[in-house]
Design goal:
Number of helices: 21
Number of strands: 2
Mean pLDDT: 91
Order of helices and strands: HHHEEHHHHHHHHHHHHHHHHHH
Low-confidence stretches: 448-452
Radius of gyration: 24 Å
Distance between the termini: 48 Å
Shape: globular
Helix content: over 70%
Strand order of the largest sheet: 1-2
Structural class: mainly alpha
Strand content: under 5%
Largest sheet: 2 strands, antiparallel
């Protein structure tokens, strides 16, 4: 017989997931960005190439050929939607966004599971899930033909499965963790370092017998070979070089380390553009951004004629070597400038990208301010409550370190938010109890006085 309390929690979670899905679908079909600005980046061109028998290819700087400019999962998924709903049609982009929304709804449930796994009470877990369902940045993430929702769900599931596997000692649960972790790394390469480090970490994890530690490390290695291995071998075959997942490391370092670098791929917003954007701070429509011309220029636009000449017609691996030369040359000549940019990237990752026009939105600024403040307090409370937060901190820390040293973007912080919302929920619950307790005591004193 199902425990009534557990049944109530289950139905509450179903309602919260449905709410999260409804809000995400509402944003998608209200903005209709699938008609004019799906934000598909390189996914779009690669998906078209797959449809036309050109393989996983991309063109840039006058060269078109086998590419690793993006990791494979999302372009392949988009190619599937193109096949069903028509190549590059609004219907295909809308289908991709609906898929994102479904994954976003799943992330609501995963947020609850993560909260409970790391130490939260049922109430705090439900509060965190509710926040995930309605949080503006989480809702708006589905509105782009990108893998953000997949990354959110994968990172959250990694934390859940990691702790459940080491607590239960189950090989199958650990295998599930391995598949999710390596699949997440294949989707978002910034997760590759923590996935690899976990294989070392597990060998020293206390509370597990040595044979279980070795077994888990072996399982993780095996899943990496199965999930990531074929793509790495393909890259070796088409590029003639070992590229684990993406061939964009040095180009990203250069984008974050040059005379015009802002820490992201965007250029610095001019005072006139900033003024125009601030005047539209309360609107959710992004057409004013295009009218201000503030969301057009990128770091590529600042390449000199000589630099473009060197890059023209080169394949991706050759361009990587050229960008490595550009980046290391600039960093060695501007060590203080690079250190300053690292601090800027850290700030933009943890806070907001003030050179991104989409950041000039009141709801976005308010939600980011609130989540940063509440999660910072919650982190202290979680330490005091002895929550199991080592692994999520290592996961997030490895990503933040990578972004700090290379390149960041506004969307990069969104996958951290479910964990932050767990901490924020703990803060809200603690504040509620602290406020309620004196009120209850005062009510008790008054009641006692009346009784006397």
């Amino acid at each position: 017989m199902v425990d009534p309390a557990r049944k109530k929690v289950m139905w509450t979670l179903i309602a919260l997931c449905a709410l999260g899905l409804a809000l995400r679908l509402g944003v998608i079909f209200k903005t209709q960005s699938y008609r004019f600005n799906p934000g598909a980046m390189e996914h779009d061109s690669i998906a078209r190439g797959l449809l036309h028998g050109q393989g996983f290819s991309f063109g840039d700087f006058g060269y078109y050929g086998p590419s690793s400019v993006q990791s494979p999962p999302y372009p392949v998924l988009l190619a599937g939607f193109f096949t069903i709903f028509g190549e590059a049609t609004p219907a295909a982009y809308a289908a991709a966004m609906v898929f994102n929304a479904l994954v976003g709804g799943l992330a609501v449930w995963l947020t609850y599971l993560m909260a409970r796994t790391i130490g939260a009470t049922v109430g705090v877990g439900l509060l965190a899930a509710a926040a995930c369902a309605i949080w503006p940045t989480q809702v708006y993430a589905s509105n782009f033909v990108q893998a953000i929702d997949l990354i959110i769900a994968a990172q959250t599931a990694m934390v859940v499965l990691f702790y459940r596997a080491i607590r239960s000692g189950s090989a199958w649960t650990w295998a599930g963790f391995g598949l999710v972790a390596t699949g997440a790394a294949l989707t978002e390469p910034v997760l590759l370092p923590i996935s690899a480090f976990t294989g070392i970490l597990i060998l020293f994890w206390g509370g597990l017998a040595m044979r279980l530690r070795i077994r888990n490390a072996a399982i993780l290695l095996a899943t990496a070979l199965v999930v990531i291995g074929p793509w790495t071998v393909r890259n070796r075959m088409v590029h003639g070089a070992w590229v684990p997942i993406k061939s964009t490391f040095w180009v990203n370092v250069w984008k974050g380390a040059n005379d015009y670098a802002t820490g992201t791929d965007r250029l610095k917003i001019t005072p006139d553009q900033k003024k125009a954007l601030e005047e539209q701070l309360l609107t959710a429509d992004d057409r004013h951004m295009r009218q201000a011309g503030a969301d057009e220029a990128r770091q590529y636009d600042m390449l000199t004629r000589e630099q473009r000449s060197r890059l023209q017609g080169q394949n991706e691996i050759a361009r990587e070597k050229i960008f490595q030369e550009f980046a290391t040359g600039w960093i060695s000549s501007h060590p203080a400038g690079y250190a300053k940019l690292c601090l800027i990237r850290l700030g933009k990752t943890l806070w907001i990208d003030w050179d991104n026009p989409k950041s000039y939105n009141a709801a976005y600024v308010a939600s980011r301010a609130l989540i940063v403040a509440l999660s910072a307090i919650g982190l202290v409370l979680a330490f005091r409550a002895r929550w199991s937060i080592l692994y999520p901190l290592l996961l997030i820390g490895s990503c933040v370190l990578t972004y700090t040293l290379t390149l960041t973007a506004a969307r990069f912080s969104i996958p951290f938010e479910p964990f932050q919302l767990c901490l924020a929920a703990l803060t809200v619950k603690t504040l509620f109890v602290a406020i309620r307790r004196p009120a209850a005591c005062a009510a008790g004193v008054v009641s006692s006085g009346q009784g006397a």
